[in-house]
Design goal:
The complex is a heterodimer of chains A (543) and B (116). Chain A has 543 residues and is an all-alpha fold. Chain A is built from 20 helices and no strands. Chain A has one domain: Sodium/glucose cotransporter, CATH 1.20.1730.10. Chain B has one domain. Chain B has 4 helices and 2 strands. Classes of the chains: A mainly alpha (543), B mainly alpha (116). Chains A and B meet through helix 2, helix 5, helix 9, helix 10 and helix 12 of A and helix 1, helix 2, strand 2 and helix 4 of B. Chain A: Pfam families: SSF.
């Protein structure tokens, strides 16, 4: 441990010189986005404004915002870092994250836009008994979003401290609190409209920053990808193996199965992430929802292609030790690369690029946590408070007030948990969020939309079954105990060998949805299904 | 703005006519045009993706074969996943615009026209 602590301190000293520039750029972003938030807040009056941004965004705008919501610090810094360390195996992540969008495009986005109003629960509970299904949908929305939020907060604390050169524990907690407060302000004041604009601004900044570094890296290698790969393979010290699958996941039979499990969770998880699903409500029609997913696929795909240049560029231009000692998981490879490509640690160019990329990373974290907070507070207010507790008998004003307060409470909870979660395994939390989304949400969404016989019991079994099985399997996996990299490395109570539960819990979610339906005596409501099917395919009566 | 004039269960045309629409040949055509395109394509791209995952796992030697300079089959396969994703998105959107949207629009106009 001691060499890495030493070099973190070294990196911290280096970062100290650029601190004023990083802080200035970051403050500019926060002030500008808060101004947008206040402006959006003035126009946010009813539930449709707060939850769905007035449904007036264009397909392109929403596509940008979806990209801003989806490209988290995990994909920007995490994938670039994973490629810089594990070479080709890091690249595998981005493919799963991208292909997943086809599930959203072909099966979920348009029917959801046509038949729901504000939350995922709207569609799941459409044909079912409202209260139990809404409770289940709200619970799984909040669980998925909180896991994802925790991962972002934990990552934010560590990363921001490193980039700003903050080493004291109090300083790191202060960063988490600061991120949390800005996020609460965005969402509680600006609602969906404010959050959407923050995400659009962030997406533009992130793409511009990545484009710049990619261009500089490719320029250095004469726009010859083969040359870049060759240089990366050589400098990594691993040779051709660096460009082949297997460095990270190929070690044992178990790690290979784990990789399959992760792959399935990634490709099926996206279309069940509540913070992504609610974005489809911000456009006026299903055609616009389709257009926004197409834009998102284009933007996110281009971005992931650029992370290849970033990751292999970092591997080619930085010493492997520099990357891993700064951050074990490689999370700082992209900022370090920016510094190197700008002229090195002591140059003005290097300082400016490092500050720019660091500020972009802050912006990325803020926009994503805002989206997650919005998804969980919307579901809390709309599904749990209004439809379960108040049985649908709340006025619009009460509902918006409940949603704003829910934002404050969920944000506060995220700050407290985030402060404790700083040491947790970030990748494990993100993979868990995807696995829960794919196991609990996706089966229920697909059955609800496409299977006539599906019943309330089926919905409850698949949501709770998927939710409980994925969480329990992770609890008893090496992510939590039994390994050096676990959350609790000192103890060992794991019996499930895989780090990702998807391989078991996703089929189980589908199976339980089917089984619950087959064994229930309840007659499915044919009239309601007719209504849902006609509305979801034609857009009749869409909100 | 509260445009919530059609809460679930009280659709513009009433539950009964939703069932009539659902059973109508026009809606049957729309459903068929959607499902017969989207479902097999979903199975196809997930299979194509899993093939990639499995080859990465169990066919390391094959994936490591160099094709052009330092570019190996694994890399080309990965880029192919990006391209196929772009292509499928474009293909579905074209199908939706020509085969689904006009049918959906016709049914929607008729239904909402009936109500007013």
């Amino acid at each position: 441990m001691s060499p890495s602590i030493q070099s973190i301190q070294l990196a911290a000293e280096g970062a100290g010189e650029h601190r004023p520039l990083i802080i200035t750029l970051f403050s500019l972003f926060v002030v500008a986005t808060l101004a947008i938030t206040v402006w959006a807040g003035r126009q946010t009056k009813g539930t449709e404004d707060f939850y769905a941004g007035g449904r007036q965004f264009s397909g392109f705008q929403n596509g940008l915002a979806i990209s801003g919501d989806y490209m988290s610090a995990a994909s920007f810094l995490g994938i670039a870092g994973a490629i810089a360390i594990a070479g080709y195996d890091g690249f595998l992540y981005s493919i799963g994250f991208l292909v997943a969008w086809l599930v959203a495009l072909l099966l979920v986005a348009e029917p959801l836009r046509n038949s729901g109003r504000f939350t995922m629960g709207d569609v799941l509970a459409y044909r079912m008994r409202q209260r139990p299904v809404r409770t289940a949908a709200g619970t799984s929305t909040i669980v998925v979003s909180i896991f994802y939020l925790l991962a972002q907060m934990a990552g934010a604390g560590a990363l921001v401290s490193l980039l700003l050169g903050i080493t004291s524990e109090t300083g790191k907690i202060l960063i988490v609190v600061l991120v949390g407060i800005v996020m609460i302000l965005y969402v509680s004041i600006g609602g969906m409209k404010g959050t959407t604009w923050v995400q659009m601004v962030k997406a533009v900044l992130l793409i511009a920053g990545t484009l710049l570094i990619t261009f500089l890296v490719l320029w250095k290698f004469h726009f010859n990808v083969s040359e870049l790969l060759g240089a990366a393979a050589e400098k990594s010290g691993k040779g051709a193996a660096f460009l082949e699958p297997g460095l990270k996941y190929g070690a044992t039979a178990t790690s290979k199965i784990d990789f399959i499990s992760l792959g399935i969770a990634l490709v099926l998880g996206t279309a069940g992430l509540p913070h992504i699903l609610i974005r489809f409500y911000t456009v006026p029609t299903a055609q616009a929802a389709r257009k926004s997913v197409n834009w998102a696929i284009g933007i996110i795909g281009t971005f992931y292609l650029m992370t290849i240049a970033l990751g292999f560029g970092a591997a080619a231009l930085l010493d492997p030790d520099t990357i891993t000692t700064s951050n074990k998981a490689g999370n700082t490879a992209a900022p370090l690369l920016a510094q190197e490509i700008g002229g090195g640690a002591d140059s003005t160019g290097g300082a400016i690029l490092l500050a720019t990329i660091s500020a972009v990373a802050f912006a990325t974290i803020l926009a994503v946590v805002a989206g997650l907070t919005l998804a969980s507070s919307s579901s809390f207010a709309h599904d749990l408070y209004v439809n379960v507790i108040r049985k649908g008998q709340a006025t619009e004003k009460e509902e918006v007030r409940a949603a704003r307060w829910a934002t404050v409470f969920i944000g506060a909870a995220a700050i407290v948990l985030g402060a404790f979660a700083r040491g947790l395994n970030v990748a494990g939390l993100v993979a868990l969020a995807f696995a829960v989304a794919a196991s609990a949400n996706l089966p229920t969404i697909l059955y609800s939309l496409f299977w006539k016989r599906f019943t309330t019991r089926g919905a409850l079994w698949s949501i709770y079954g998927g939710l409980v099985s994925s969480v329990v399997l992770v609890l008893f996996s090496p992510v939590v105990s039994g390994k050096e990299t676990s959350m609790f490395p000192g103890v060992d109570f794991h019996w499930f060998p895989l780090e990702n539960p998807g391989l078991i819990s996703i089929p189980l979610g589908f199976l339980l949805g089917w089984l619950g339906t087959v064994v229930s005596k309840e007659e499915p409501d044919a009239g309601k299904y007719a209504e849902l099917e006609v509305r979801s395919l034609t857009g009749t009566g869409a909100h | 703005m509260y445009t919530d004039s059609t809460p679930p269960g009280e659709g513009t045309s009433g539950t009964e006519s939703y069932r009539e629409v659902q059973e109508s040949p026009e809606f049957g055509e729309l459903r068929h045009a959607y499902r017969s395109f989207a479902f097999p394509l979903t199975v196809a791209f997930i299979t194509w993706y899993l093939l990639y995952v499995l080859l990465s796992n169990y066919a390391g030697g094959f994936m490591g074969t160099k094709v052009l300079g330092n570019l190996n089959i694994a890399f080309v396969f990965g880029i192919a996943q990006f391209l196929s994703t772009f292509l499928i998105a474009w293909w579905y959107s074209r199908h939706a615009a020509t085969k689904l949207d006009p049918r959906a629009e016709a049914i929607k106009t008729r239904l909402e026209g009936d109500a007013s």
